[in-house]
Specification:
The complex is a heterotrimer of chains A (213), B (361) and C (701). In chain A, helix 1 (25-58) runs antiparallel to helix 5 and helix 3 (75-100) packs antiparallel against helix 6 (180-212). Chain A is elongated. Chain A is built from 6 helices and no strands. Chain A has 213 residues and is an all-alpha fold. In chain B, a hairpin with a 6-residue loop joins strand 6 and strand 7 (188-191). Chain B folds into 2 domains: 42-77 and 90-119; 133-359, Cupredoxins -  blue copper proteins (Immunoglobulin-like, Sandwich). Chain B is built from 9 helices and 12 strands. Chain C has a two-stranded antiparallel ribbon with strand order 1-2. Chain C folds into 3 domains: 1-59; 60-607 and 652-682, Cytochrome c oxidase-like, subunit I domain (Cytochrome C Oxidase, Chain A, Up-down Bundle); 608-651. Chain C is an all-alpha fold and 701 residues long. The chains are: A mainly alpha (213), B alpha+beta (361), C mainly alpha (701). At the B-C interface, helix 1, helix 2, helix 3, strand 7 and strand 9 of B face helix 3, helix 6, helix 12, helix 13 and helix 14 of C. Chain A: The chain crosses the membrane at residues 36-58, 78-95, 107-124, 144-170, 191-211. Chain A: Its main location: membrane. Chain A: Residues 1-22 are annotated as: Disordered. Chain A: Residues 26-212 form the Heme-copper oxidase subunit III family profile domain.
Chain lengths: 213, 361, 701
């Protein structure tokens, strides 16, 4: 049964990836609720990143004689990470288009490419941390490094979590096919993925470029 | 004492208090009330004034509520016969008044607060024809160290200040966050390791005031107290002289004892002093120059780098160069710092601390 | 300890038992404190045992499991939230009584050790804010808000279960800390560097960190859930400006939760990194900066104040309007004022630390910003008075709380303005004046609001009224107890007595302390009265039955359905044409009409997610506290598996057939028609079965 307000206009805008059809109005509405809810949750997550970035800025001076950005950061590797993440956002976009047209094979392919790019990003990030550790850049060394390691790995953790979610969605697709919950799941994962991209651009500018300038 | 004895003791004490209640409640707001309601300095006096000004202004909004609520309750009670208009939900004039009056009060308060906050900023020195006395305060677990940099002395457990002369305090903590407060004189200020905060106070008259820590910092928190003694100028000079004479030098070994956890009395005991008096005061005849800022820095103190000499009369501090060996020999005579009772010290000979102060650049 | 034991039990040893120190230290102080701590631990263990035995004896495990623990119903989850809140309230009040007793005899010493006292004020504050106030208001909003907007459930019922599970886990952790002691002594604010590992290496601070973090996560999720529900699930015709005021305040609170909780998550998270992984965010050495913590904490702390106070504002708005038999005065103004307060609440956090040595400009600016909040709040108070003005006021129990609130709250507001004046704050900051102020806001504000709401909506939830005689007694005890317990603290604060002092040395404090102690006893009486009220009400539930659902001649949609409401709340989703939707229906004679058409209703199916996440998060937190890493890992893996596994579940809904809905609804309507409507003079009599006399020209009979 469809419960729509009389006085309220029916929302016309549909999410491009859903394609649940005009006869699934109620289904579409409840799905839209989930996507909206995820947006709201992302706002809350954004606050966390914003606060950590602000804290990081206040801690820039707290190197306590330990190594600072210039001694630790390697711009080339960070640039590679940035490109990987940006490209992964583009491939996720391709996956969304495939979702819209219900092309399951292409959808899976693009998702797998996205996943691979995410793993590559994580690999380079971990390698960076390893180099930093070798240069004495451990979080216990100074307040500055603590602030760094509370911000950047949290983003990495998000990417790892998003990757797990992606795998889980592929699993769901294998079991249930491309049904409405899987579609909404991919839609929400897309929001998270692009969100992490934006956060990374913030980190890249503030932490890496800002630190090296 | 046995448990039952202790309980009995409490009961007896309790019954004594119960009898005291009415009497003390009446006298509670009177002249013996500690704190800023009975101010002893210009800052606290101004704070009391602000307190009542704010209350008076806010009362404009509060009083109508307190008076009218019972009146409305009575007039429009269920069994009453007052007019009943269940659909009345808007009155433009009442709305305008409702917003305008608080807005006006906040506007007045805003201007008032802006001015008073600047005027009573604890960092702002107090206007006076006398030069301020500089004191450095270090918070420990659970006691305060008062360093008089110009006099080259220090005390614990008692802060002695000249009355009617501004006091400029610099504060830091050797441990966690604390808050330094002498209610009768004025503001409190937080003290933090690696940071220096500032506070300016003044006592109008000679007297004894409680000082305390307001920010909880562990088991001994409630013991982190001291007596502030405001004295006449000559008595202050006598205090300086006596501290120089009777105190012990603040050297590495002594400092290690101070830095240990413990309240004032426990520290005095650890230093081998008589602690029978509640106001146990510990005197230090010599304080290394720059000790305050070294403590503030937070890193382990390098005692060999500190200049342990007291400033000499008529010389600037920078011109005094003494080796630490000679300090130890000169201070060995005065290791028996005695806890001091509260009797006035004006009888003692006064040292010319004032002249020295002025001789400094 | 051998390697194997430490691998299994981490750092948990025999000395964690509350009576352990008593066995090694035989001083009278140690023994008294040991006895008190052991008694408290015994209460926890016996309480848990008694609950298990009772459920087993009644044979209700299956019922408990399928009807409550795994139920996604917002009404049941709401009630469970409130049950947690009441249990924790009882514990925290007892703690408060102990603290008051200690300070009443605290000249020079007393009977509690400083350590024990530190744990008492820390748990009291932590519980009251995170495990009493938050679950209480979450529970009330959970129950009432969907009914008020004509929805069947929240947007995310399973997420709602998870929120409940997380809160329950946090509360359980605080309870466990009584048995496997100690809890933190760092105060509910947990300021570093005092709470850093260097200064406090024990398990206490870790208990605090994880309990608070669980509660914060729960509240963030709850906020998302409430906000989405209000935005997306309103009944047809219920525009934003037709929402009941309580829903409005729920919306503002939800938004504040979404934006206000993350700062605390960050603060406790970073503190945990400091303590577990040797970070230096807030330490004194190696470039840490504790002021960051203070800013983060209060960037949460101040919105939190309004998270706590806005729902009561909404509750009182409903109560004043209902029991004055009149429209709320200035609905739009109240909505605007609520939004103003919500927005302004993010701009004032610095007034919690005027004394940290900022420049006078900053202090003055934040002082003035703080006073700005006073304006919309003051307007609200006047709106409530004008709601009563020209009404016909019934002094029922919710109304007594409301009156107590309005009179006492303005005094708290006044002392708030005093504290917002930086020059005066330098005198009363960190003193008992501050303690008195925030209790003056939170007891008459939050707690009276919650108790008023409980008395107001209890008949809706259970189908019978709460007994009024004991209700009045409880209310009066609360009001008098509050005044006795906290007005003396204002004076003590003005005399410069620091908060959190286990003992003091000024004889002038003693009489005020004794009065405050008597006040604490009166509050204990109030708690007892509440329990008796509950007991008497349950005993007399048949005579006080209000199945028809509208015992107070209510104005909003929740009163239009049965008491207790069916699982799906409304057999047919109502259409809304105005503010005070149900009152309009009653006035127009359109209430309780037989619907033309019933449809199948899709409701969320039961789910074990809440229980699973609750248990695993409790296990993870417990493992983290005691360094039982295997437990942390195991619980983490199970959590992940549960979340991933949940994604594979497709049977998430069940259908209630239109026939079943029709039968249930029409049976209820039939009973309702046979019930005599009553006028308001018999509201508190046994004649009240929940059908009100229809209003004549909008006037209550």
């Amino acid at each position: 049964m469809s419960q729509r307000p009389l006085a309220l206009p029916r929302p016309q805008a549909r999410h491009p990836g859903l394609n649940l059809g005009a006869d699934h109005a109620h289904e579409a509405d409840s799905r839209e609720e989930m996507v909206f809810g995820f947006w709201v949750f992302m706002m809350s997550d954004l606050i966390i990143f914003g606060l950590l970035m602000a804290t990081y800025v206040t801690m820039l001076g707290g190197t306590a004689g330990g190594p600072g950005p210039k001694a630790l950061f390697e711009l080339k590797s960070v640039l590679i990470q940035t490109m990987l993440l940006l490209v992964s956002s583009a491939t996720f976009g391709m996956a969304s288009i495939a979702l819209k047209y219900q092309e399951k094979r292409r959808l899976v392919m693009w998702l797998l490419i996205t996943l691979a790019l995410g793993f590559a990003f994580l690999f380079f990030e971990l390698r960076d941390f390893h180099t930093m550790f070798e240069k004495g850049g451990v979080p216990s060394r100074s307040g500055y490094l603590s602030a760094f390691f509370s911000l950047v790995p949290l983003h990495g953790l998000h990417v790892a979590g998003a990757s797990v979610w992606l795998v889980a969605l592929l699993g769901q697709m294998a079991v249930h096919g491309l049904d409405a919950p899987v579609k909404t799941g991919i839609l929400r994962l897309g929001i998270l993925w692009h969100f992490l991209d934006i956060v990374w651009i913030g980190i890249f500018s503030l932490v890496y470029l800002g630190g090296l300038s | 004492m046995s448990v039952s004895g202790r309980i009995e003791h409490f009961l007896r004490q309790g019954s004594r208090y119960v009898l005291l209640i009415p009497m003390l409640l009446l006298s509670g707001c009177g002249s013996d009330m500690p704190g800023f309601m009975n101010p002893q300095g210009p800052i606290a006096q101004a704070q009391r004034h602000h307190f009542w000004v704010v209350i008076a202004l806010v009362m404009v909004v509060v009083i109508p509520v307190i008076i009218q609520t019972p009146l409305i309750l009575w007039r429009y009670r269920y069994r009453g016969h007052a007019v009943y208009r269940p659909k009345w939900d808007m009155s433009r004039w009442l709305d305008i008044i409702m917003w305008a009056v608080p807005l006006l009060i906040v506007a007045i308060l805003g201007v008032y607060i802006w001015r008073q906050t600047h005027e009573l900023d604890p960092y702002r020195s107090i206007a006076s024809d006398k030069p301020p006395l500089e004191i450095q305060v270090v918070g420990y677990d659970w006691k305060w160290l008062f360093i008089y940099p110009d006099q080259g002395i220090a005390t614990m457990g008692q802060l002695v200040i000249p009355a009617d002369r501004p006091i400029a305090l610099e504060l830091t903590s050797a441990t966690v966050l604390q808050s330094f407060f002498i209610p009768a004189l004025g503001s409190q200020i937080d003290v933090m390791n690696r940071m220096v905060t500032k506070l300016h106070l003044e006592a109008d008259h000679p007297g004894r005031f409680e000082g305390k820590n307001m920010q909880y910092n562990g088991e001994g928190f409630h013991h982190q107290r001291f007596i502030t003694r405001a004295v006449e100028d000559n008595a202050f000079d006598a205090f300086v002289a006596r501290t120089r004479r009777q105190g012990r030098p603040l050297d590495q070994d002594t400092y290690a004892i101070i830095a240990d956890k413990g309240d004032n009395r426990e520290t005095a005991r650890a230093l081998g002093l008589d602690t029978s008096d509640t106001d146990a005061v510990i005197r230090f005849s010599q304080v290394p120059e720059g000790l305050f800022h070294t403590i503030m820095g937070g890193s382990p103190i390098d005692w060999s780098a500190l200049n342990v000499a007291p400033p000499q009369l008529g010389t600037t501090r920078t011109s005094v160069v003494q080796t630490s060996e000679s300090d130890q020999s000169s201070s060995s005579e005065s290791t028996s710092a005695a806890p001091e009772s509260s009797e006035p010290e004006s009888a003692e000979s006064s040292s010319p601390s004032h002249e020295r102060k002025e001789a400094q650049p | 300890m051998s390697d194997t034991t430490s691998l299994i039990f981490g750092r948990l040893g025999w000395d964690a038992l509350p009576f352990w120190s008593m066995l090694t230290d035989h001083s009278w102080l140690s023994i008294i404190n040991g006895v008190i701590a052991t008694g408290a631990a015994g209460m926890v263990v016996l309480g848990a045992l008694a609950a298990v035995i009772l459920v087993t004896w009644l044979g209700k495990w299956r019922y408990l499991w399928s009807e409550w623990l795994t139920s996604p119903d917002h009404k049941k989850i709401g009630i469970m939230f409130i049950v947690i809140a009441l249990v924790m309230l009882a514990r925290a009040i007892v703690e408060a009584v102990f603290m008051r007793a200690q300070q009443a005899v605290g000249l020079d010493s007393g009977f509690l050790t400083a350590e024990h006292f530190g744990q008492l004020f820390t748990t009291h504050g932590t519980i009251m804010v995170f495990f009493m106030a938050m679950p209480f208001l979450t529970g009330i909003i959970n129950y009432v808000m969907p009914l008020q907007i004509g929805a069947r459930d929240l947007s995310f019922p399973v997420l709602n279960q998870v929120s409940l599970g997380l809160t329950a886990a946090g509360a359980a952790l605080v309870m466990i800390s009584l048995v496997l002691a100690p809890f933190s002594i760092g105060g509910w604010t947990g300021y570093p560097p005092f709470t850093e590992l260097a200064r406090n290496p024990g398990a206490g601070v870790d208990y605090w960190i994880w309990a608070v973090t669980l509660s914060t996560l729960s509240s963030t999720l709850t906020g998302v859930n409430f906000a989405v529900t209000i935005f997306k699930k309103r009944a047809p015709g219920m525009t934003l400006m037709r929402m009941p005021l309580f829903t409005w305040t729920a919306l503002c609170t939800a938004i504040l939760m979404i934006f206000g909780m993350p700062p605390l998550t960050v603060a406790t998270g970073l503190l945990a990194l400091d303590r577990y992984l040797d970070f230096h965010m807030f330490t004194t050495d190696l470039g840490g900066n504790m002021m960051n913590y203070v800013n983060l904490f209060w960037a949460f702390g101040h919105p939190e104040v309004y998270i706590l106070i806005l729902p009561p504002f909404g509750i009182f708005s409903e109560v004043f309007a209902t029991f004055s038999g009149k429209r709320i005065y200035g609905y739009k103004i109240l909505v605007i004022a609520t939004m103003c307060i919500a927005v302004l609440s993010f701009t004032v956090w610095l007034h919690h630390f005027f004394t940290m040595g900022q420049s006078a400009h900053i202090n003055a600016a934040f002082g003035i910003a703080t006073m700005l909040i006073g304006i919309p709040t003051g307007v609200k108070v006047y709106d409530w008075m004008l709601t009563m003005y020209r009404g016909r006021i019934r002094l029922s129990v919710p109304m007594v709380y409301a009156i107590g609130f309005i009179m006492l709250f303005v005094l708290g507001g006044m002392t708030g303005i005093i504290l917002a004046t930086p020059s005066v704050d330098y005198q009363v900051h960190n003193s008992l004046f501050l303690v008195a102020h925030f209790h003056n806001m939170l007891i008459p504000g939050l707690l009276f609001g919650m108790l008023s709401a409980t008395n107001f909506w209890f008949p809706k939830a259970t189908g019978f009224r709460l007994e009024e005689r004991w209700g009045y007694r409880a209310a009066f005890c609360w009001i008098i107890g509050f005044m006795l317990a906290f007005f003396p603290l204002y004076v003590l604060g003005m005399m410069g007595m620091p908060r959190r002092s286990v003992a003091y040395f000024e004889p002038q404090y003693v009489p005020w302390m004794i009065v405050a102690g008597i006040g604490a006893l009166a509050i204990l009486c109030a708690l007892l009265c509440l329990l008796i009220q509950l007991w008497v009400s349950i005993r007399d539930r048949h005579t006080n039955n209000v199945f028809a659902g509208d015992p107070w001649d209510g104005r909003t949609l929740e009163w239009s359905t049965a008491s207790p409401p069916p699982e799906y709340n409304f057999p047919v989703i109502p259409e809304v044409h105005s503010l005070d939707a149900f009152m309009t229906e009653k006035e127009g004679g359109r209430a309780w009409r037989v619907p033309d058409h019933y449809g199948d209703i899709e409701m969320p199916a039961n789910s074990v997610m809440g229980v699973v996440i609750g248990l695993t998060s409790l296990a993870m937190a417990f493992g983290l506290v005691w360094y039982m890493w295997w437990l942390v890992i195991a619980a983490g893996v199970i959590t992940l598996a549960a979340i991933v596994g949940r994604g594979f579940v497709r049977h998430t809904h069940r259908i209630i057939s239109a026939d079943e809905v029709r039968t249930t609804h029409e049976r209820w309507l039939e009973r309702l028609r046979q019930t005599a409507p009553i006028d308001r003079s018999r509201e508190q009599s046994t004649d009240n079965h929940g059908r009100a006399m229809p209003p004549v020209e909008g006037a209550v009979q």
